[in-house]
Amino acid sequence: MTEPVERLAPARAESVAQAVASWKAAVLDLFGGGWSFAWVGPRDHQDWHRDVASVMALRVSDPRGWYSVDFAPESAESRGGAAAPFLPWSSEQLTASLFEVGPLSAAQLLVALKGEWYQAANIPDFENRKDELLRSSRRILSRFGPDASFFTNASEARNNPDADLLNPAAEWECLSDFTTDCGLVAVSATEVGVFWAFWED
């Protein structure tokens, strides 16, 4: 027997509210401190690099209206858009600077971005917090579904999509005008996410 719509609607509303709260908690856990950026935009083009460029320039908003973060350091230099932390990049430039990684490496990197110089080993009390931080990371990535693709500017992934990125080698294809930056791009059929951390001397 089909359950009446009026009994299903509150459950759906609660589920959505839980998803929104869970997303915000995970984003704050990993990107709530330090110079960081966590922003999702719509996937409007077959060439997803164009959508990533729009997110980086802050030309789009989260299509679900969920929590976003832009805590990049202040810069007097000309950047990609009003208060945008990234330099303007073409699709071709982004293609050359981003390397595909698997889901495990992607989850590791989101955690590593919380540490100084993008090293999980530099996160205070990391060993005791590791499982909790990885849960937050997986929660963020789950938004993009099981068929999502992930890309990073960490050079260690250039030839190894399954690299252990909890403590990646200190080489990055920087995409901002700050001293260094490192991050992850998530791509689904409907959305793109940009998750980044910055270092400025």
Q: Would you tell me the overall average pLDDT?
A: 89
Binned strand content: 15-25%
Estimated structural class? alpha+beta
How many distinct helices? 5
Write the H/E string, N to C.
HEHEHEHHEEE
* Spatial extent as radius of gyration: 17 Å
Helix percentage range:
25-40%
Number of strands: 6
Low-confidence blocks of residues: 1-8
Shape: globular
Widest β-sheet, arrangement of strands: 2-1-6-5-4-3
Largest sheet: 6 strands, antiparallel
Cα(first) to Cα(last) distance is 65 Å
Structure, explained:
The protein has 201 residues and is α+β, with helices and mostly antiparallel strands. 35% of the residues lie in helices and 16% in strands. It has a six-stranded antiparallel beta sheet, with helices on both faces. α1 (5-31) crosses α5.
